Inverse folding.
């Protein structure tokens, strides 16, 4: 088994099973108890929303927020865990209804920028420079509701404000084309990295690629990862899987398309991702039908699939690959890949 990859997930990946059509089906597990599961499941990194770390942050002063985040850091230390990133959760607050950074209401935009600064403070207290921006409601239900050109300008400004406020911050944009919005701004990694080039400090803006989000954009996740890797900008991943164009499913990695998962692992191997020290993050959900005492298997199973695929990538016969490429016999190469994945 390859050992050099480090894995992370977020506390929201152990969840109560509510969906838009039904209530929770499993009891809540308190944060401290979730933390205890990480090592047992083979994980070292914790992904955070700002309010995963400091739930009541909207009612606290900046000093109180930092104090509470420092207490969470002690909990992490006690469990031998590290924070991978912190993401501002703008989409659950009433002020984020119309998007935060791109809201039409200037008071909401100002709130979002301040919230991002508090998120940076929390990241520093937790000991991580990485901030993830999933731009959940930064988009539109109907095009006529916003001036998209102005909205992009607001996004540039918000990112620059955070970079200037927090000299340690490294911002990884997590693109997604839709859901909850009809159309989201910054739908692909190409958009994200173009935006990075316009930042006051382009070296501190990169990307996080989620399998399902790339698929929802009609793109190949491994090629999206390759693009970011080619620019030195793949700072995290959210591995999961997705069965076609429908709601964001966050299935176990490899569960819908094992070959697609193999190609994502292959590109991470080709790109030297484990040597970068970056985490292999998961963003997976247990099926709603899963009973509470086994509602963590999606995490350990995703990790196992990943590690098994690392072995598959490393043991693929390179001589066969080279010969097929030299002969331009891609039918033979395809069959060799299929045989290899089937264990032949
Ligand atoms: C939803 C996103 C979400 C983010 C998380 C971190 O579609 O994948 O889970 O990854 O909030 O910002
Ligand atoms: Mg995600």
């Amino acid at each position: 088994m390859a050992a050099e990859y480090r894995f992370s997930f977020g506390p929201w990946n152990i969840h109560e099973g509510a969906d838009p059509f039904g209530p929770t089906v499993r009891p809540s597990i308190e944060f401290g108890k979730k933390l205890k599961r990480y090592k047992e499941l083979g994980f070292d990194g914790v992904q955070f929303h700002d309010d995963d770390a400091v739930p009541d942050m909207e009612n606290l002063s900046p000093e109180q927020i930092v104090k509470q985040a420092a207490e969470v850091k002690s909990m992490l230390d006690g469990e031998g865990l590290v924070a991978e990133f912190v993401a501002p959760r703008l989409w659950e607050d009433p002020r984020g209804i119309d998007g935060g950074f791109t809201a039409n209401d200037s008071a909401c935009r100002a709130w979002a920028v301040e919230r991002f600064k508090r998120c940076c403070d929390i990241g520093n207290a937790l000991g991580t420079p990485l901030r993830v921006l999933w731009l959940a409601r930064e988009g539109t239900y109907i095009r006529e509701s916003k001036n998209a050109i102005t909205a992009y300008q607001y996004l540039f400004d918000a990112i620059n404000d955070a970079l200037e406020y927090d000299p340690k911050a490294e911002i990884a944009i997590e693109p997604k084309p839709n859901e909850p919005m009809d159309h989201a701004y910054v739908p692909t990694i190409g958009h994200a990295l173009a935006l990075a080039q316009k930042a006051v400090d382009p070296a501190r803006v990169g990307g996080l690629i989620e399998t399902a989000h790339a698929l929802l954009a009609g793109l190949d996740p491994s090629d999206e990862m390759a693009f970011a890797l080619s620019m030195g900008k793949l700072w995290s991943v959210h591995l999961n899987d997705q069965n076609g164009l429908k709601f964001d499913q966050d299935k176990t990695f490899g569960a819908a398309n094992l070959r697609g998962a193999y190609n994502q692992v292959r590109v991470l191997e080709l790109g030297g991702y484990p040597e970068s020290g970056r985490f292999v993050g998961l963003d997976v959900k247990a099926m709603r039908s899963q009973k509470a005492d086994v509602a963590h298997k999606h995490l350990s199973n995703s990790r196992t699939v990943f590690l098994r695929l690392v072995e598959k990538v490393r043991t693929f016969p390179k001589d066969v690959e080279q010969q097929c490429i030299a002969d331009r016999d891609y039918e033979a190469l395809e069959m060799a890949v299929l045989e290899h994945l089937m264990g032949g």
Observations:
- The chain has a mean pLDDT of 97.
